[in-house]
C-alpha cells in the first residue's frame, strides 16, 4: 500500500496531495514497537506519507502514547486495546519498516548462520575475530542482548525476518550513500522490494537503556565526523560510563570541536516524543 499510493501521488504538489486524501480514501495504518527509537522514526514516516496525500492512523500502546497536539490534526492515534478486531473484508497490503540500520537488519538475516558457525554466543577470545559473512564486522559487533537468553533473542530476530519476507516490501531507515552494499544484500536475500531514502541526514540515537564507555563514544563521534555526511546525534545525560562503571557526562566536545566549524553536525540532548 505504501509504495503503490506514493507512486500515484508523487508527481502532485504536497498541498494538493494532502487535500486529496479524504476524497481518495487512502489510509495507512502504522504500528511501531513501543520504544522511543522505533516510535520517533515511524512518526517521521507518517509525516512523509501524510504529505503525499495519505490519511494516517497510528496504533500505539498505552504506556507509549504520542502527543496528538504535536502532530497534524488529521492523524488518528488509536490505543492498541481498541484495535483487536478487524473487518473480515479488509485485506491491506502490508509493508515492513525497520528503524535500525541496514547493517543491523542484515545481521538479523544472517543470525542462523552466525549461530551455526559458532560466532555466537560471543567468546572473549574471539571478540576481535572478523565475521567473514558480514564484513567489516567483528564478533564483538554482533547484536545480542547480554541480559537476555541468546535463544530468546534469536527467536525474536527470526520472527522479525520472517514477517519481513512475507510483506510486500521493506522500508529501511538508512540511505544508499552509507549502506548501499547492505541494502542490496538485503534486497537479494529477501526477494522483495527494499526502499531506502535517496537523500537523508544521519540520525544517531542509542536506545533508552544503552550505556557505553568513553572510548566507544569517541569512536562513534569520530565515525560521524569521518562520514562526511550531515548528522544529528542525540545524547542522553547518562549515556557514558568510565572503566569503574560510574556514569559520566558524554564528551560531546569531541564532535563539536571538529565538526561545528563545518556546520554539518549537531549534538542535542535526547528529548521525549
Could you walk me through the main structural features you see in this protein, from its secondary elements to its overall organization?
The chain is an alpha/beta fold and 273 residues long. The protein has three domains: 2-93; 102-197, no CATH class; 202-269. It is built from nine helices and twelve strands. It has helices spanning 2-9, 14-24, 36-51, 102-109, 111-116, 150-166, 176-190, 214-226, 253-259; strands at residues 27-30, 55-60, 76-79, 96-98, 170-175, 194-197, 202-205, 212-213, 231-235, 240-241, 247-248, 265-269. The strands form four sheets. Strands 1-2-3 form a three-stranded parallel β-sheet. β1 (27-30), α3 (36-51) and β2 (55-60) form a beta-alpha-beta unit. α4 runs parallel beside α7 and α8 (214-226) runs parallel beside α9. The longest helix is centred in the middle third of the chain and has 17 residues, at 150-166. The two termini are 27 Å apart. GO terms for molecular function: quercetin 3-O-glucosyltransferase activity; quercetin 7-O-glucosyltransferase activity. Belongs to the UDP-glycosyltransferase family.
Amino acid at each position: 500500500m505504501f509504495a503503490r499510493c506514493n507512486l500515484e501521488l508523487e508527481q502532485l504538489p504536497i498541498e494538493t496531495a494532502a487535500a486529496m486524501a479524504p476524497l481518495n480514501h487512502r489510509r495507512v495504518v502504522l504500528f511501531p514497537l513501543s520504544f522511543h527509537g522505533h516510535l520517533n522514526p515511524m512518526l517521521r514516516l507518517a509525516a512523509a506519507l501524510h504529505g503525499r496525500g495519505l490519511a494516517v492512523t497510528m496504533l500505539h500502546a498505552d504506556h507509549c502514547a504520542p502527543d496528538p497536539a504535536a502532530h497534524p490534526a488529521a492523524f488518528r492515534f488509536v490505543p492498541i486495546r481498541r484495535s483487536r478486531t478487524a473487518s473480515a473484508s479488509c485485506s491491506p497490503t502490508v509493508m515492513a519498516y525497520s528503524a535500525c540500520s541496514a547493517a543491523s537488519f542484515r545481521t538479523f538475516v544472517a543470525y542462523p548462520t552466525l549461530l551455526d558457525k559458532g560466532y555466537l554466543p560471543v567468546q572473549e577470545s574471539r571478540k576481535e575475530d572478523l565475521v567473514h559473512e558480514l564484513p567489516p564486522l567483528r564478533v564483538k559487533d554482533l547484536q545480542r542482548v547480554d541480559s537476555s537468553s541468546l535463544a530468546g533473542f534469536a527467536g525474536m530476530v527470526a520472527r522479525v525476518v520472517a514477517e519481513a519476507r512475507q510483506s510486500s516490501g521493506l522500508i529501511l531507515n538508512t540511505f544508499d550513500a552509507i549502506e548501499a552494499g547492505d541494502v542490496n544484500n538485503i534486497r537479494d536475500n529477501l526477494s522483495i522490494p527494499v526502499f531506502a531514502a535517496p537523500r537523508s541526514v544521519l540520525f544517531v540515537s542509542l536506545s533508552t537503556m544503552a550505556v557505553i564507555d568513553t572510548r566507544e563514544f569517541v569512536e562513534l563521534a569520530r565515525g560521524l565526523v569521518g562520514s562526511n555526511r550531515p548528522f544529528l546525534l542525540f545524547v542522553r545525560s547518562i549515556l557514558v560510563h568510565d572503566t569503574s562503571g560510574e556514569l559520566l557526562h558524554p564528551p560531546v566536545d569531541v564532535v563539536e570541536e571538529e565538526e561545528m566549524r563545518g556546520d554539518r553536525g549537531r549534538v542535542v540532548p535526547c528529548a521525549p516524543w
